[in-house]
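All the exercises in this workshop are built on plain-text protein records. There is nothing in a record beyond a sequence line and a structure line. A learned vocabulary of local backbone shapes supplies the integers on the structure line. The question running through the whole workshop is how a given chain folds. Here is such a record, shown just as it appears in the course material:

***
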Amino acid sequence: MPTFKCRQCPQREFNSRTALYQHYRTTAGHPFCNECNKLFLTQASLEDHYRGKASTVHPNCPRCGKGFFNTPADLPRHYTDSIQHPTCLVCTIGFKDDAAYSAHGAAEHPECRCTLCTRQFLSKDELKAHLNTSDLHPKCTQCKFGFMDDGALDEVSEQLNLSENNVDSSHSIS
């Protein structure tokens, strides 16, 4: 009867390949892929195996290339944990890329999003502070309030012109 030897534990012999696989799975220090039941001689070869498969079995991160994800569900956790991926400041979900983050912010938190800069803020107050301090946003020359864009500034200007009897005529907008 053939014997199967563990290459990392040369003193261990097994009567079947199944018994050897069980040894690899249950004994620390034995490189073994749980997803495809492959044995590896070294940890480095297992890591190469994970990095080399661009599939749903061992997905790699499309942005940073990091591997070692045994299931597709591991990727969202990686997006949240990795500093290389954008994370929503409001709900702390991580995203694959800037486009996914931007789409999330626009759909889920539009009240806290600067559409000109595409920046996401924790609150409406933080967004207002950004509008008031950013040089990219037009401001009222009188009250110094910032506006999202020229259209918003023009809208306020029109409203002030319509009600100029109630507003100090020195209140100009530029």
